[in-house]
Amino acid sequence: xxxxxxxxxxxxxxxxxxxxxxxxxxxxxxxxxxxxxxxxxxxxxxxxxxxxxxxxxxxxxxxxxxxxxxxxxxxxxxxxxxxxxxxxxxxxxxxxxxxxxxxxxxxxxxxxxxxxxxxxxxxxxxxxxxxxxxxxxxxxxxxxxxxxxxxxxxxxxxxxxxxxxxxxxxxxxxxxxxxxxxxxxxxxxxxxxxxxxxxxxxxxxxxxxxxxxxxxxxxxxxxxxxxxxxxxxxxxxxxxxxxxxxxxxxxxxxxxxxxxxxxxxxxxxxxxxxxxxxxxxxxxxxxxxxxxxxxxxxxxxxxxxxxxxxxxxxxxxxxxxxxxxxxxxxxxxxxxxxxxxxxxxxxxxxxxxxxxxxxxxxxxxxxxxxxxxxxxxxxxxxxxxxxxxxxxxxxxxxxxxxxxxxxxxxxxxxxxxxxxxxxxxxxxxxxxxxxxxxxxxxxxxxxxxxxxxxxxxxxxxxxxxxxxxxxxxxxxxxxxxxxxxxxxxxxxxxxxxxxxxxxxxxxxxxxxxxxxxxxxxxxxxxxxxxxxxxxxxxxxxxxxxxxxxxxxxxxxxxxxxxxxxxxxxxxxxxxxxxxxxxxxxxxxxxxxxxxxxxxxxxxxxxxxxxxxxxxxxxxxxxxxxxxxxxxxxxxxxxxxxxxxxxxxxxxxxxxxxxx
Length: 659
What we know:
- The protein is of the alpha+beta class and 659 residues long.
- The strands form four sheets. Strands 1-6-5-4-7-3-2-8-9 form a nine-stranded mixed β-sheet. A seven-stranded mixed β-sheet has the order 16-17-18-19-22-24-23.
């Protein structure tokens, strides 16, 4: 008997609600209506058969004209309780209490309108003592959303069938690329929670006239729980208990990397979280060298209460997701410790090879063995990641060492004694690397000496050559690593400053008219000696070797006026733009220092005398503190620069080699 009529839904404006509901544009999103229909079918089967649902339940998914957007049709048929009066009443009432009892929201069926334009329901059900049926088109865009038909369902048993066709134009390109195996894998993985810890009825999938394939039979031998347990995670200020299940599955095109899945309402919600980075590899290999992946499923009451109405996501913060990913990754690493051991062994071998080419980086190990160091680093790191990290560690170690050397230099009477004390604290494995570094510095000094000499045409190299040796032009410490510059040539202490800009304007863009561009500019939030109430600006001005055309008061020929004006401009700018787009702002009292590096020729000496510079404590170095501008300026020759760098390096060199 057919129950033909017209009816309407007791609902809010679902068209408006749907317009505010966003889903992705991928296979999972396209299959959402199908997955929702299968889920509803399971509830109908459980209501019909109770404890026998697993053995008697049956769900048939049929897809016709798979890759043709104009003809494709998807249908889901079950042998559940059908659309009886109670279910029909719930169907007409979105967000109903009946659906909440089965972990539903009463909203899922509306998601179909994000994918298909035409949706049809047909059902047979018992209205004691007779069998009844309902067939209708469901269209929320119409005034009468339920448009009934007199025809009977195309199946003879009690149950429900949903047909979807006429996909929206935005899905046409994706439909043309659909693959039958991908669809089967996706449906199977979506209901992974049922395979792991709940019952599942027989589910078949048929494409056109091909024989139907059993999704249940295929996946119940694949999705086998290997490990389970609980983890604790703080969510919204409350420590929650979250259950997890792990399964190992063969690697395929659909299951190609380790992943974490969130489950709620007995299904997978949202997209998988790739665990490749935390586990170190996209897949593992067993003793037969067969690739497999780990799939982790997490669930808990805390997810049920935070499941969105569309059941496409769980409302938890990205930070919480990352904490769960981290905790589950730790669990997997313990259960797959032999696989992790292989990864760590490979990483250690790669790093050992890298250190053969860059032994100086062993400083960064700080006394640890390679295996000990690698054990504490991410599993996905490659040789370049370790080298980069060791460079930073080496920088810190070298910085501490350089500070000790600078401290020693401030006490000339104990300089050699202090250096010897420093070296005694360095283990033998690092002495070799440190010695190599000292040799490297020696070679750089030799390059500076060569740059000062005449070239083949009898001319001196431009000051830019020396500038690049000290610090690459048009760059800053944001894009230049510690080991790519040689600021120690000027002063070891300069390498401590957190930000250095080389031949760049304060606004960070191309040179504009009137810009005062320092060769090198150093910025620090506090003085090295610990004063922290302002910013220190130090600049370095290089002059061409052997230049002798300086004139007092001429901005183009007076290097003192140049650094004064440059420091004033830098101070007025209030900060400097870094190469990465961020900004270094000056705070508090701004202290200003300048270095002028030039050959001390007669015309330069005359200019310095006119500016009232002194050289009474060292004839080779001129200095003056200008009270009005509150800046300290120091002038030294290239020969002094080289000589001082040699002295600092040679003292350390002598101790290292026992000379």
